[in-house]
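W.,

You were right to be curious about this one. When I first looked at the sequence I had no strong expectations either way, so I just let the prediction run and decided to look at it fresh. Below is the sequence, 335 residues in total, followed by the output.
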Amino acid sequence: MNNPTYDFKDQVALVTGAGSGMGLVTAQAFAEAGAAVVLADINEGAVGTATDELTATGHQALGVTCDVADEAQAAAMVQRAVAAFGRLDMAFNKAGVQVPPSDAADETAGNFDRVNAINLRGVWASMKHELRQMREQGSGAIVNCSSLGGLVGLPGRASYHASKHGVIGLTKSAALEYAPRGVRINAVCPGTIDTPMVADMLDTQPDATKEIMRDQPIGRLGRSHEIAAAVLWLCSPGASFVIGVPSRSTAASPLIDLSRASWEVSTPLARNDPQTHRKREVVQHARNHHARRRRRSYRDRPGRPPDRVDRRRGPSDPRLRLRQRSVAVRVDGAQ
């Protein structure tokens, strides 16, 4: 199935981490959809080559060398984008790094600082200055790159997962703040995607390949163009009612993302769609299931205080039952 096509003519998109992998493919997808694209990356050679390839095929593109961990460079990146094209309509804050797995008790401060400086501070700095321009325009769409690691935990990955959890918190809070101002902010949470960074990780951690593939129901790694498709949709008018959502882009987790599903079924265009009704039923079933599990775990909890009220059995303490009846009588008498 072909991906949807978008018309981003006369719009400007900024992509960080655009020298390779998901960032590069997303920048190319924006250009193919008609947008003028600003490609930013710390690797000057890679971003220069990518920019030249786009301009050679007739696209509007600007390459910027930028270390997003440095706020001054992030601010200059946005300023160059606006100076070149006059506005900023869309941004994908993709720049990120991995660090070697480590026991949480043995993690070095250097690794922790590095991964958070780029993955979290870099998103914060980029989004901050993108928002300043979009705030003046009264419009815009930002997609931050978190990870499946921003939704779950994994042994040996505490620092990396902390940075990606932080991106989701940053996204949700800023989304609520800027939605009334016409700026939508969301996040994508890719699983394991076939990119140069993942290839380097697998080369140094051969045992990780078996573990990753074991958790892939689809039998393969994700592909960069699949993430790009999600980013372009989140920046498009088709996602105009989607705000503050960490969108899963992975085949590795069959869990239902209730927050995302609730947004999708509330979209006006989807209300009469049979698939939407089915999705609503699945979401409600999952919510009921989790509610039942919470009730059972509460009833079976050792040492549960006797004066707590069990909704199904009523108060466990006879004195509370009498008190409840007396209150009911007084209320009925007052009526």
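Here's what jumped out at me. The mean pLDDT is 80. And, maybe more interesting for your project: Strands lie at 12-16, 36-41, 61-65, 90-93, 140-145, 183-190, 246-249, 309-310, 314-315.

Coffee later to discuss?

I.
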